[in-house]
Write a structure and sequence with these properties.
Blueprint (H helix, E strand, L loop, with lengths): L3 E5 L18 H8 L7 E2 L2 E2 H12 L3 E6 L5 H13 L4 E6 L6 H6 L2 H4 L4 E5 L2 E2 L2 H8 L6 E7 L5 H4 L6 E6 L2 E7 L9 E6 L5 E6 L1 E9 L2 H8 L16 H10 L4 E6 L4 E2 L5 H12 L1 H12 L4
Parallel strand pairs: 1-4, 1-6, 4-5, 8-14
Antiparallel strand pairs: 2-3, 6-13, 7-15, 8-13, 9-10, 9-13, 11-12
């Protein structure tokens, strides 16, 4: 069974800066967000990234590597000092992306941690359910996997930014294509039979997004290290090494990606106004996680 996970948390966090002070009143927390560690924003008194680590613990993962920027300090200190007490079930380590050069480049930074083993990959600025994480752990060992999230499960705030997400196309339960920032996502509607929780089957007729929840075999690191730089998305700005291009390269080489279906409200921390939305969602929908984290933090003073 897969034991390792990599969390991508090295983004520049530029979009959350505008207006962050309206929602974050704690000085240390705001400073960390200003320096780019937006997952330091607290919800129900806990850093956002704690909820993600907790999900990995509950799913049975044993090692997690967080990819950060070289100068990031909040999470290296937070988890080095408190991690063994808060999350004794999982070993937390760090890799560093030397410069912001795309998601494939960030994944490649963790190659020393993965060491040729299969691993789970997820975004640090999203929060997925333990059930979605667990689906990927049950996949066949001879293929990679991903979760396709039905936008019908998203809250209205997140669904409104659909055109900024990557939508997917499937065939026969396998990933066929990833369309980044589709201008007409309705044209990518999935009509397929996909696997769901406990390897059940779901008849799907909807728009599915990739929210970067993947199960990779060893080939992904070579693909991330050899993929070509994507063409610039904005005039005057250099293109980056992007994970969807590495995945497409693997598919061209014959790798199969089983797509698992989920219809849930994936939390997304991108802009400052997301903070209020996430605060409400976490208090309303993640009460068990808040209780669990509360009990774990009590150990620090015990």
């Amino acid at each position: 069974m897969m034991k390792k996970a990599v969390i991508l948390a090295a983004g520049s966090a530029t979009r959350i800066q505008d207006g962050a002070e309206r929602y974050i009143k704690n000085g240390d927390e705001l400073e960390a967000v200003r320096l780019g560690e937006k997952m330091a924003a607290r919800f129900s008194n806990f850093p956002f990234l704690d909820f993600q680590v907790l999900n990995l613990v509950l799913a049975g993962l044993k090692k997690v590597n967080i990819v950060l920027k070289p100068n990031d300090r909040f999470f290296t200190e937070h988890y080095s000092e408190k991690g063994p007490i808060l999350f004794p079930e999982i070993e937390i380590s760090f890799s560093f992306q030397e410069k912001p050069d795309g998601t494939a480049h960030a994944v490649y930074a963790a190659r020393g941690f993965t060491g040729g083993d299969e691993f789970l990959l997820l975004n640090g600025d999203n929060n997925y359910s333990t059930r979605s994480v667990s689906m990927l752990l049950d996949r066949p060992s001879n293929m990679s996997g991903m979760v396709g999230f039905d936008i019908a499960g998203f809250n209205e705030h997140t669904r409104a930014r659909l055109k900024s997400f990557a939508v997917i196309r499937t065939g026969g339960g396998r990933l066929v294509d990833i369309v980044e920032k589709a201008s007409d996502p309705e044209r990518c509607t999935t009509r397929d039979t996909l696997y769901g929780p406990d390897n059940g089957r779901a008849e799907v007729n909807g728009i599915l997004t990739s929210m970067n929840l993947w199960a990779f075999r060893h080939g992904i690191m070579e693909a991330c290290g050899s993929v070509e730089r994507h063409k610039p998305r904005k005039p005057g700005k250099e293109g980056e090494f992007e994970l969807p291009d590495a995945v497409k390269l693997l598919i061209e080489r014959g790798e199969e990606f089983r797509v698992y279906y989920a219809k849930e409200d994936v939390l997304d921390l991108t802009r400052s106004e997301d903070i209020a939305v996430l605060d409400e969602r976490i208090r309303g929908n993640l009460a068990d996680a808040v209780t669990d984290l509360t009990e774990r933090y009590e150990r620090l003073s015990g």
